[in-house]
Amino acid sequence: MVGFALGTYHVNLAGAAIIIGAVSATLSLIGLELGDRLGTKTGERGELLGGLVLMAVGIAVASGIF
User: What is the pTM of this model?
Assistant: First the structure.
């Protein structure tokens, strides 16, 4: 979504690459931190929760929701 929005504002290529890279790195770091915190709280149940989420995403993709 970041790249689409930048295209409507006519941002140059270097600026767009920097912004997309910064957003991607920031969201990746946030995801890693949240995953670490959730992993310590849920323990082994985290694996079950992750499996259920992956199955739900797979079902949603296969059924055409996404």
Answer: 0.57
